[in-house]
Amino acid sequence: MNIAIIGAGMSAAAAVTVLKQQGCQVSVFEKSRGPGGRMSSKRALAGSLDLGAQYFTARHDDFVAQVESWRKQGLVQIWPMQPWVFENSVLSRSDDQQVRYVGTSTMHQMLVPLFEGVDCHYQCKINELSFITSNVSSHSHGQWQLCSEQGECYGGFDALLLTSPPQQSRQLLTGAPILSQIPTDALLPCWAVLLELATPTGVKMDAIFVKDGSAGWIARQSTKPGRQSARLRDVADAPEQWVLHFTADFSARELEASAERLSELAAAELSRVLGRTVDVAAALCHRWLYASYNPALAPCGVLFDRKMQLALAGDWALGGRVENAWLAGKMAAEKLLELRDQSGGAR
Ligand SMILES: Cc1cc2nc3c(=O)[nH]c(=O)nc-3n(C[C@H](O)[C@H](O)[C@H](O)COP(=O)(O)OP(=O)(O)OC[C@H]3O[C@@H](n4cnc5c(N)ncnc54)[C@H](O)[C@@H]3O)c2cc1C
Hints:
Elements: E1 2-6, H1 10-21, E2 25-29, E3 41-44, E4 47-50, H2 61-72, E5 76-78, E6 84-87, E7 90-93, E8 101-103, H3 111-114, E9 119-121, E10 126-136, E11 139-148, E12 153-157, E13 159-162, H4 166-172, E14 187-197, E15 207-210, E16 215-220, E17 241-246, H5 248-253, H6 259-274, E18 280-293, E19 303-305, E20 310-312, H7 315-318, H8 322-342
Parallel strand pairs: 1-2, 1-13, 2-9, 6-15, 13-20
Antiparallel strand pairs: 3-4, 5-8, 6-7, 10-11, 11-12, 14-17, 14-18, 15-16, 16-17, 19-20
Helix pairs in contact: 1-8
């Protein structure tokens, strides 16, 4: 069975793992330069920077086992942090005992081996899909063809899995019967800002959940294991780097704001929460149009259209977060394997 997957984030990686184990041929199409999706880290002089997912948790037995395996391979470590909470203008230590993991040395490190040996097409944004049907010995069978923004077409796929944000998948599946099941506003935006300070704050906190104001999350990058580059590891006065995520409401209101404005707002917010002035040396802003799950929606589950040999999955299908992306990718692969089992393994 020959399967095409759009996206190379956590859900696609989980699907690829199951499909490869079952002997399927898999081709992956990803618009970015490599795997990671919303878990991507940026490489910088001071090491790797996490502008998307900050950590992940593991609650489901299957994912706990998977994380343990990654830990043994050195791809994941526990982030030994104790979060703080900023609420009603008061900063207090949280008694939260949640175990939090990070990929090392980049957040998406564990995805890299999962895509090894797979036919991956990076920097390949798919902008057109066709399902071409034919009647063979009284039952109808179709094949998917994918065409990229660059005008290249790839065909002959027995099944298709989309792991792109649902808002983007809707555009690719205009007119398809499954369209009515794809949520319209499942993922909300987030502005992420990295602030590198010229003078240290001296604050020892690792991460802060901000409950009032325009930020939702503030974390000190260097407190994560494996983040600092070898070049800076011995330098005692490596610059302090703080990552700040603005809330979904604020990010939606400021969607078109300039990097300059966002850097200033982020510095003001960091200063307000820490209760001291901050001296910013450099800033980096990243806009995620589709970041985190909309808590007002009930998750729709993994979507599957048997007739069209089509599945849609991602964190959004199960309520957001890295763990749900992995679980959803696995479920989608199992659904697609039903197609092969029903056709007697002929495909
Ligand atoms: C700012 C931010 C903070 C977060 N914090 C946390 C956290 O602390 N803990 C946690 O558990 N989760 C967090 N998350 C959520 C977590 O990152 C996601 O749950 C997870 O990475 C989703 O994986 P996915 O495979 O479902 O989707 P994605 O990672 O979004 O993968 C989809 C992929 O599809 C690609 N794509 C889209 N359209 C096309 C196309 N037309 N052609 C080709 N490729 C395409 C995209 O480039 C992307 O790589 C955060 C996310 C963000 C953005």
